[in-house]
Amino acid sequence: MSRADRGEAPAGPSVLSPGVAHPHRAQRPRHPGPALGDALTLATALIIVTIGIWVRRGGWASVTGGVWAESWESIGALTGLLATSVALIGIAFAARTHRFERAIGLDRALLWHRWMGETAALLLVTHIVTTVIAFASLSSLRDAIVQLTGEKQYMAMATVGAFGMLLITVLSLGFIRRHLAYETWYFIHLLIYASLALAFAHEIYLGSDLAFDPLARAFWISVSVIVLLIVVVSRWGKVIRSIARPLTVLSVTPLNDVAAAIELGGRNVSDLRAAAGQFALLRPLTSKLVWQPHPYSISAAPRVDRIRFTVKALGGASDLMTRLPVGTKVAVEGPYGTKIYEALRGEKLLLIAGGVGIGPIRSLLEDFEPDSEPVVIYRARRAEEIVHYDELVSLAETRNGRIIPVIGRTIELKNGNPLDPDVMRRLVPDVAQRIGVVCGPQPMISAAFHCLRSCGVDEDDIHFERIWW
Ligand SMILES: Cc1cc2nc3c(=O)[nH]c(=O)nc-3n(C[C@H](O)[C@H](O)[C@H](O)COP(=O)(O)OP(=O)(O)OC[C@H]3O[C@@H](n4cnc5c(N)ncnc54)[C@H](O)[C@@H]3O)c2cc1C
C-alpha cells in the first residue's frame, strides 16, 4: 500500500519523493470498473440480435430451402447485416470512452478496432459476392451488376459506401500503411463515417430483413444512433474539449541535438487526472500543427500545475515540437493508457527503455516504493542520446535500484547485449522474480519480450505498449 493510500505525510523534495504522497501531485485517474466485461457483453449481444433478426425473417429457412438463388440471397443478407454490426462495434472500440480505454489501454482498443474493421471488410466482400451470385442466377451477371449498383438510388449510394470501406481496409494493411504519411492515412480513414452513412439507407429501405420488420428497423436505427452518439461525445468531444481548454508551453529544454523536455502548465492540468506511465495526444495550436495530434508519454509524474513530455525529433511534426516557443497553446487529449503502476505496486521491477522510451520509465520511477528495487536497462545508440540521466540515478538510488546504461548499436555490443538471456541473467540475477516494463521501438520490444520469457518471466508480467499504427 502506498503512503498516500495510508494517508501518511509527504516526504522529501518533489523529484525524489514517492510521487503518490506529494501534495502537488495531480490526482490519479478514477478506477475504470468492469468496463471490459460490459463492452464485450454488449458487442456479443449485438451480434446475437443481428443473427436473430435474420432468423426471424426466415433467413435460415431460405438457406436450407433448396432454392439456389434464395440461399445465396439469404447468406448475402446475413453477411451484410453482420458487416454493419461488426463495423459499428469496431467504431465504438475506437471511440476512446474513458472507462473502456482505461480498462484495456488505447493500444489494445485500437488493435481490436483494426481486427473488427478487417472482419467487417471480409463480411462485406462476402455480402457483395453472394448477392451478385443470387441476382445473376435469376438473370445475367451484367444485369445483376446493373441492378445492384445503379438501378436504385440507394444501391448507388451503398456501392460508393462499399468502395469507401474496402479502400480504407486496403490502405490500413501494414505493408501499404507503412508507405503513407500518418496524416494521409488518418484523414482517409475518417471516410468510414461517410461510407457507413451511404450504406445505411439501402439496409433500411431495401434490405429484406429490415425493410419489412418495423421492430428490427427500430432496433437497427437505435444501435446506429447510440454508436454515433458515443463517437460524437467521447471521440470528438475529447478533441473539442482539449482545444477549448489548452495548456501553455512553460519551457522547452533541449536535452541533446534531437530531444527536448517540454513542460506544459495551466489551470487545467489537474483536470487531466494524468498518471505516470500514461501518454497524451499533443496538438500545438499553431497553423502547422493544429491538424496533427501526436502521442507523447508523460516523462515526469504530473503535478497539479504542470506536466512534462520528452520529445525526440523524428520527423516534421516532432521537429517543430522540440522548438515550440514558450507561451504556445497546446491541446492535450487524454491521457491514455492503463494504470500500469497499479499492477507494479509492491513488485520488484525490471524496466527496459530504448531511446526516448525512457520518458515513461522515468515518470514511473517516481511512483515506486523502495521495495521495488528497480533495475533500469537504458539502451541508446550514442552516449549523447541519453537523457534525464541525473534524475534517473537520483530516483533509482532512493528506491534501492540501479541504472544500467547500455550504449552502442546492437551489432557492436557483441557479448554485452542485455537482451541476450545469458547477459540479462548476469546483469540481473533475480530477473525471473521481477515484473518487466518495456518502452521503446518495436524491434526492441520484441527482443526484450523474448529475452524475458527465456529468463523465466511470465507473459502476464511483461508490460509494453502495443504498436497500433
Ligand atoms: C503511445 C506512444 C507514445 C509515444 N511517446 C513518445 C515520447 O514520449 N517521445 C517521443 O519522442 N515520441 C513518442 N512517440 C512517438 C511519436 O508519437 C512520433 O515520433 C511522432 O508522432 C512522430 O511524428 P512526426 O510527424 O514527427 O514524424 P513522422 O516521420 O511523420 O512519423 C514517424 C513515425 O511516427 C508515427 N506517427 C506519426 N504520427 C503519429 C500519430 N499521430 N500517432 C501514432 N503514430 C504516429 C509514424 O507512423 C511513423 O512511424 C510515442 C508514440 C506512441 C504511439
Tell me the layout of helices and strands.
Elements: H1 3-6, H2 35-56, H3 59-64, H4 68-93, H5 98-104, H6 106-136, H7 141-151, H8 153-171, H9 174-177, H10 182-189, H11 191-205, H12 208-211, H13 214-244, E1 247-254, E2 259-265, E3 279-284, E4 294-300, E5 306-312, H14 316-321, E6 329-336, H15 340-344, E7 349-354, H16 358-365, E8 375-380, H17 389-397, E9 402-407, H18 410-413, H19 421-427, E10 435-439, H20 442-454, E11 462-464
Parallel strand pairs: 7-8, 7-10, 8-9, 10-11
Antiparallel strand pairs: 1-2, 1-6, 2-5, 3-4, 3-6, 4-5
Helix pairs in contact: 2-4, 4-6, 4-13, 5-6, 6-7, 6-8, 7-8, 8-11
Residues 181-182, 279, 293-297, 309-312, 314-318, 356, 359, 465, 469 line the site of flavin-adenine dinucleotide.
Largest sheet: 6 strands, antiparallel, barrel
Total count of strands: 11
Number of helices: 20
Question: What's the helical proportion of residues?
Answer: 40-55%
Q: Bin the strand percentage.
A: 5-15%
List the strand order in the largest sheet: 1-2-5-4-3-6
Bound molecules: flavin-adenine dinucleotide
> Structural class given helices, strands, pairing?
alpha/beta
From the alpha carbons, calculate the radius of gyration and give it in angstroms: 26 Å
Principal-axes shape call: elongated
Distance between the termini: 36 Å
Mean pLDDT: 87
Number of domains: 3
Uncertain runs with pLDDT below 50, 5 residues or more? 1-23
